[in-house]
C-alpha cells in the first residue's frame, strides 16, 4: 500500500516545474470508461445533479462502492472534456467528503479508485476558482497541489490515499465556504449514520478538516451552530460524532466554544461539556470561566448565569482541575462574588452559586461556615459577610499575595459592575487585618488612585482605607502631604469625607505656619466647587481652622497676613445666600473668622442686610484702604461655579462697602466695577438684574460724594447717624427680607 504524501518543502523542491506552469485540462486515469456512462454535452444541470446524487448514494454501500467509484471517475473525466458542463456547486461538498472518506477505505482498490476520482475532481475545482476565497495562502496551497499532481507525467493518487492531513488540507482550501461547511456536516451527520464507513475513519477525517479550516473560510460560530444542531439530533451516532467535533473545535477555538455553549441550558449540553473539560487546557478554561463571570452583568437571561454556575460547579469537582483552581483562586473568587453582588435583586440568576462558593472557598484549606456564605447572598449583610469570609480564609495565607495582584488588575478594569467593588472591599479588609497589605506609601498611593475610580463604592472604600492609614503608625508627614495634594482632583461625592480626613491628619500634631496657610488656601479654593456639599465642608473647615488658631492663642500675625484674612472673610461672606447647607456653614464660619463682630441682628434671626453692614463696618475699620480695595476687586471676579446667588451677594457686599466708606475706590477702578455690574444687569434672573442696577447706583453716588471732599463725606456720615440709615435705600427693594 502506498503511503500518503504530506506537503513539505523537500517534496516540493524535487519538482522542477516553473511557477507559472499551469495545470493541464485533464489528467489521465486508470479507470475504465463505459461508453454508456459517458455524459452527453446536452445533459441538463438537474440531470447531472441527479447522476451525482445516485453515485454518492452508491458509494455509501460497501458492496457496490468499487463500481460507484469507477462511475464517479468516468463521470468526472467526461465533465473535464466538456467545459460547458459544470458540476452543480451544491454537490461539491458531498463529493469531496465521501471521496476523501473512500480514500481511507480498508479495501486497496477502493482507496485507489477514490484517489483517482479526487485527482479528477481537483482540476474541476481549479477551473471554478472564482468560487474560492482569493487569498495568497489559498493560492500557494493550490499551486503546491498542482505540482504534486503533475509530477512524473501522470496523476499521483498516492497523495490522497490513506492520508487525512493532505485530504483535508488540499480540498479544504479548494472548496468554497458553503461547501466546506456542507462537507464537514455531511461527514458528521449523514455518513456516520447512513453508510458502512468506519466511524473511526470519519472522526479522523473530520478532525483534520476542523483543525485545518475551522477558523479560515468558515466562521467558527457557523460550525458550532451546525454541530450543536447535530448533537441535539435523533440518532446516537450523529450526536456522538457532533460531540466529538465540538471537542475538537474547542482545542483551537476554546473561547468561542465556551461563549457559544453558555447560551443554552447546561443540561442540554452536559455531554459536550464533559468532552470539552476532558480535552481542554485547565488553566485556559479557568481563565475563560472567570472572564465570563466578570461579564455576567451583561447576561441577557438567567439561563446564561445559571449555566455558568453549573459549569464552575462541574470544574470544581474535577480532580484534574484542582491545581488550576488553586492557581486562579483569587480571580475566580473576585469574579464569583462580583456576580453574586450584581444579582442580589434576583435570586433566580444565582441558582446554585451558593454551593459553588462553598466549594471554591474550600480549596483554600479552610471550611467557611454556612452562615457566612448566607450573609454574602443578602444585599444588607454582604459587607459583613465579606469581612467574615476574608478573616476565615485568611488563616491560610498562600492565596493572599496573588489576590492582591488580582485586585489591582480588577480595579484597572472599569467596564463591568460588581467586580471592582468586591476587589476593593477585599483589599480594605486585608488592610484592616494586616494580611499582606500594610500601612505604607505604596498602599496610600493605591488608595489615592482609586479615588478617581468610576464606581462610587470603590471611591468610598478608598476613603475608608485612608482612614485606616490615619489610625496606623504610618509616617504622618507623608500621609498629610499626599492627602492634601489629592483634594483638587478627587471626585465630589467623596470630597467632604476627604476634607474631614485632611482635618484629622493635620490636627493630630502641632500645626506650623506653612501648614495653616496650605490648609486655608485649599479650603478657600474648594469653597468655589460646583457641588454644594463640597462648598459647605470647605467653608466649615476653614472656620474650624481659624477657631482652632484662636483657641490655641496663636499670634494672628504668624498664622495669616492681612490679605489672607480679608480674602477668607470675603470667600465666606459671598456664600451667605448659597444653598441651605452652604449658607449655614458660612454663618457658623463667620463667628470663627471674626468673633468680635456681631453677625446676628437677633439671637434667633439672621439678616443678610445686617451681616453685610457689619462686615462693611468691620472691614473698613480693620484693614487699610489698599487691602480693602483688593478685596473689593476680588468681589468682581466670577466664581468658579458661577452661581447667581454668589454673584448677587458679592455685589451687595460691594455696595455696602461703598456706602460705608468709598475711599477705597480709585478712579481707574470705576470702569471695572461698572463693566461687571452692567453685565449683571443682562442676566436672565430678575433678582440679579435688580441687584446690579442698585449696586451700580450706590457705587456711582458714593464715588461722586468721595470726589466732593472730606467735609462732604463727614456731613453725609453724620446725616446717616442721625437718621439711622445703615443700609443703602436702593437695596431695600431687592432684598428678600426688609431690615427694621
What would you say this structure looks like, in words?
There is one protein chain. With 740 residues, this protein is an all-alpha fold. Among the domains are: 1-178, no CATH class; 281-431, Leucine-rich Repeat Variant. The chain is built from 39 helices and no strands. It has helices spanning 9-13, 45-59, 65-81, 89-102, 108-127, 136-150, 164-174, 177-194, 199-213, 220-231, 236-252, 254-261, 270-279, 282-294, 302-316, 322-327, 329-342, 347-350, 353-362, 370-376, 382-393, 400-412, 419-433, 441-450, 456-470, 476-486, 495-506, 513-526, 532-551, 556-559, 562-573, 580-593, 608-622, 625-635, 644-660, 670-680, 686-707, 710-723, 729-732. Helix 10 (220-231) runs antiparallel to helix 11 and helix 11 (236-252) packs across helix 13 (270-279). The longest helix has 22 residues, at 686-707. Residues 1-38, 130-138 and 736-740 have low confidence and may be disordered. One of its GO terms (cellular component) is cytoplasm. This is XP_034995939.1uncharacterized protein LOC118097306. Residues 65-266 form the Maestro-like HEAT-repeats domain.
Give the tags.
740 residues; mainly alpha; Leucine-rich Repeat Variant; 39 helices; 66% helix; disordered N terminus; disordered C terminus
Topology, element by element:
Blueprint lengths: L8 H5 L31 H15 L5 H17 L7 H14 L5 H20 L8 H15 L13 H11 L2 H18 L4 H15 L6 H12 L4 H17 L1 H8 L8 H10 L2 H13 L7 H15 L5 H6 L1 H14 L4 H4 L2 H10 L7 H7 L5 H12 L6 H13 L6 H15 L7 H10 L5 H15 L5 H11 L8 H12 L6 H14 L5 H20 L4 H4 L2 H12 L6 H14 L14 H15 L2 H11 L8 H17 L9 H11 L5 H22 L2 H14 L5 H4 L8
Amino acid at each position: 500500500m502506498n503511503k500518503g504524501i504530506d506537503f513539505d518543502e523537500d517534496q516540493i523542491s524535487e519538482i522542477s516545474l516553473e511557477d507559472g506552469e499551469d495545470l493541464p485540462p485533464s489528467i489521465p486515469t486508470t479507470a475504465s470508461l463505459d461508453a454508456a456512462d459517458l455524459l452527453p454535452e446536452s445533459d441538463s444541470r438537474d440531470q447531472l445533479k441527479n447522476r451525482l446524487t445516485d453515485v454518492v448514494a452508491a458509494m455509501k454501500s460497501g458492496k457496490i462502492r468499487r463500481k460507484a467509484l469507477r462511475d464517479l471517475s468516468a463521470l468526472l473525466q467526461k465533465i473535464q472534456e466538456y467545459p460547458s458542463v459544470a458540476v452543480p456547486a451544491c454537490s461539491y461538498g458531498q463529493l469531496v467528503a465521501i471521496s476523501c472518506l473512500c480514500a481511507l477505505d480498508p479495501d486497496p482498490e477502493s482507496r485507489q479508485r477514490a484517489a483517482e476520482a479526487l485527482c479528477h475532481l481537483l482540476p474541476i475545482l481549479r477551473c471554478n476558482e472564482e468560487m474560492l476565497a482569493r487569498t495568497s495562502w489559498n493560492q500557494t496551497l493550490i499551486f503546491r497541489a498542482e505540482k504534486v499532481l503533475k509530477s512524473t507525467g501522470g496523476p499521483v493518487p498516492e497523495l490522497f490515499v490513506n492520508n487525512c492531513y493532505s485530504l483535508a488540507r488540499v480540498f479544504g482550501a479548494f472548496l468554497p465556504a458553503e461547501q466546506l461547511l456542507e462537507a464537514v456536516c455531511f461527514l458528521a451527520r449523514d455518513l456516520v449514520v447512513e453508510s458502512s464507513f468506519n466511524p473511526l475513519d470519519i472522526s479522523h477525517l473530520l478532525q483534520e478538516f476542523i483543525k485545518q479550516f475551522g477558523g479560515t473560510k468558515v466562521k467558527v460560530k457557523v460550525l458550532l451552530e451546525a454541530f450543536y444542531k447535530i448533537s441535539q439530533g435523533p440518532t446516537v451516532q450523529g450526536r456522538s460524532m457532533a460531540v466529538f467535533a465540538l471537542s475538537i473545535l474547542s482545542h483551537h477555538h476554546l473561547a468561542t466554544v465556551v461563549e457559544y455553549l453558555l447560551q443554552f441550558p447546561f443540561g442540554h449540553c452536559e455531554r459536550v461539556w464533559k468532552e470539552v473539560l476532558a480535552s481542554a487546557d485547565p488553566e485556559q478554561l479557568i481563565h475563560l470561566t472567570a472572564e465570563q463571570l466578570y461579564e455576567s452583568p451583561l447576561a441577557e437571561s438567567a439561563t446564561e448565569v445559571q449555566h455558568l454556575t453549573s459549569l464552575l460547579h462541574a470544574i470544581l469537582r474535577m480532580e484534574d482541575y484542582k491545581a488550576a483552581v488553586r492557581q486562579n483562586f483569587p480571580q475566580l473568587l473576585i469574579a464569583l462574588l462580583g456576580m453574586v453582588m450584581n444579582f442580589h435583586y434576583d435570586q433566580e440568576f444565582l441558582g446554585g452559586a451558593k454551593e459553588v462558593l462553598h466549594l471554591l472557598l474550600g480549596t483554600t484549606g479552610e471550611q467557611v461556615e454556612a452562615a457566612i456564605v448566607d450573609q454574602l447572598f443578602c444585599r444588607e449583610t454582604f459587607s459583613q459577610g465579606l469581612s467574615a469570609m476574608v478573616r476565615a480564609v485568611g488563616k491560610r495565607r498562600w492565596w493572599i499575595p496573588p489576590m492582591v495582584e488580582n485586585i489591582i488588575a480588577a480595579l484597572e478594569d472599569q467596564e463591568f459592575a460588581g467586580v471592582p467593588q468586591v476587589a476593593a472591599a477585599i483589599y480594605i479588609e486585608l488592610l484592616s487585618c494586616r494580611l499582606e497589605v500594610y500601612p505604607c506609601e505604596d498602599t496610600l498611593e493605591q488608595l489615592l488612585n482609586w479615588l478617581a475610580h468610576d464606581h462610587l463604592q470603590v471611591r468610598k472604600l478608598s476613603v475608608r482605607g485612608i482612614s485606616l492609614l490615619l489610625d496606623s503608625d504610618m509616617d504622618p508627614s507623608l500621609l498629610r502631604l499626599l492627602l492634601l495634594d489629592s483634594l483638587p482632583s478627587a471626585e465630589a461625592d467623596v470630597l467632604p469625607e476627604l476634607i474631614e480626613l485632611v482635618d484629622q491628619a493635620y490636627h493630630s500634631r502641632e500645626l506650623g505656619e506653612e501648614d495653616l496657610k496650605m490648609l486655608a488656601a485649599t479650603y478657600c479654593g474648594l469653597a468655589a466647587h460646583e457641588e454644594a456639599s463640597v462648598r459647605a465642608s470647605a467653608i466649615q473647615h476653614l472656620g474650624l481652622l481659624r477657631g482652632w488658631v484662636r483657641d490655641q492663642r496663636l499670634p494672628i500675625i504668624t498664622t495669616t497676613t492681612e490679605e489672607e484674612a480679608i480674602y477668607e472673610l470675603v470667600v465666606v461672606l459671598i456664600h451667605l445666600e448659597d444653598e441651605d447647607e452652604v449658607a449655614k456653614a458660612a454663618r457658623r464660619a463667620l463667628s470663627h473668622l471674626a468673633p468680635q463682630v456681631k453677625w446676628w441682628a437677633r439671637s434667633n434671626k439672621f439678616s443678610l442686610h445686617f451681616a453685610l453692614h457689619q462686615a462693611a463696618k468691620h472691614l473698613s475699620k480693620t484693614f487699610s484702604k489698599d487691602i480693602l480695595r483688593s478685596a473689593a476687586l476680588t468681589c468682581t471676579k466670577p466664581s468658579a461655579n458661577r452661581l447667581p446667588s454668589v454673584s448677587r451677594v458679592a455685589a451687595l457686599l460691594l455696595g455696602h462697602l461703598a456706602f460705608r466708606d468709598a475711599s477705597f475706590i480709585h478712579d481707574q477702578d470705576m470702569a471695572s466695577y461698572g463693566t461687571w455690574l452692567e453685565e449683571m444687569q443682562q442676566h436672565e434672573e430678575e433678582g440679579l438684574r435688580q441687584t446690579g442696577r442698585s449696586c451700580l447706583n450706590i457705587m456711582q453716588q458714593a464715588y461722586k460724594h468721595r470726589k466732593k471732599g472730606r467735609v462732604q463725606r463727614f456731613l453725609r456720615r453724620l446725616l446717616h447717624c442721625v437718621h439711622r440709615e445703615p443700609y443703602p435705600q436702593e437695596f431695600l427693594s431687592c432684598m428678600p427680607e426688609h431690615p427694621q
